[in-house]
Structures are given as structure tokens and as C-alpha cells.
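WARN retry 2 of 3 for item q-0093 after timeout on previous attempt; input resubmitted unchanged.
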Amino acid sequence: MTRVLSGAVLVVLAVAVVWFAPSYLFIAAALLLEIAAFWEYMQIAAAHDTPVPGAVGAATLFTTMGLVPSASISLDVILISMVIAVGVLALPAWRGQRDALPRAGASLLPILYIGLPIGTLIAIRELHGARGLFLLMLTVMVSDSAQYYSGRLFGKRPLAPAISPKKTIEGAIGGFVFGTALMAVLGAWWLPEVPLVLRIALGAAVVALGIAGDLFESMLKRSAGVKDSGGLIPGHGGVLDRIDALLFAAPIYYVVLKYV
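OK item q-0093 returned
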């Protein structure tokens, strides 16, 4: 019951923020979400014995703002400065152990894994409106649900047993069918400028990357020996547990809508 209630609250909040919040409020909500996700990432990194300096979170937020059209910040300058800044921030924490490369990688990853994807989510809403963003979110949600129920009903062959033993190939197929169909059908109204063939291809790409994002976060958690990324959401784990698929799917969706 707790899981159902908290899930319902999450859906209501997501719809309210995406559809009705003014731009500044939506950006503020996205940045708060990013801070929570980065905090959980820090805990996972610490469990790997590769602690990430908290100041890297500022670099991650700054990178996010580089993708926001209304922010008028040069993304090229930000990416260059962030690489330099993260290196400098990671140096003081090193004490001569044989872990310099893992520490540097762990400090750079949140920029690519959290900062850039959340920046694309904000940019999608500013460039294509609430419908453009919600179509992406709904595709991921429908795909996730289809994977779960298809896996329970028909699942026999494991998809990635070392990472997530409960995920099955049959579940993934169900996710592809329903997620791609939703993108193709609703996209006719919400993204009419995108041709049908491209909507189908985009839907399949979003589903595939969503599955990859889910497995990637599961790999980080399993390697760290933790079940959930956090306990912020009762019955659902942490923020990263809820947005892991979006973090992988959002960039390709953004690139296709902007350039293709």
C-alpha cells in the first residue's frame, strides 16, 4: 500500500510540475532533484571506496545550466572548465593510494551521468513544451510497467543475470512493444512535426536506453552492496532509482528533436 500511495503522489507531482509550473519553478524543481540524485551518488561512490568531493555537485549543477536555453551560458566553456575543476577538486582527497584513476572517474561521472541528462530534460521542456517532455517521461513509464508485467507473465530467459536477475528478455520485449507504440501514437498529437518512422525509431531508442540506464544503476548498486540508492521515496527507494532510465534516454531524445 505504501508503494502504491507514494507512486500515486509521485505521478501527481510530476504532472503538476511538468505541465503547470512556470519555467523558473520547473528549473528549480529539476535542480533540487539533481541535488538529491547527486547526494545518493556520493553515498554509492563512498561504498565503492571512491569518495566524491561534495564540491563536484556544484560542477554538476553548473553543467546542467549550460544546457538550459534561457540561461545563456556557453556549454563549451562549461565542459572545459568542469573537467579542469573536477580534477582540481579530486586532487586534495588523494593520499597516495593506488586509486587515483577510480577517484578521477568517480568525480567526472556525475557530470555525464546526472548533470548533462537533467540539463537536457530542462532544455526539452523549454524548446518543445510540456507535451514534448511528458511524451518522453510517459514512454519510459509505460515501458517500465510493460517490462514488469510482461516479465511476470511470460518471463523465462534472464536479460542480465549478473546485474538484475529479475529482468527477462520477454519483459524487455514487452517494454519495446508498448513503449514504442506509445511514442508512435501519442507523438502524432504531441510531436506532429516528427514523421511516423522517426517516432517509431525514437521510441525504440528511448526504450533501449531506458533499459540500459536501469541496468547501469543496478550495476552501481550491486557493486556497492546496496539495495536502493536511497530511502527518500517510501516503497520506491531513492531518486536515482526513479530516474535511472530517464538519465540515459533523455540525451538521445533531446538530440533527435533538436538536430534530426
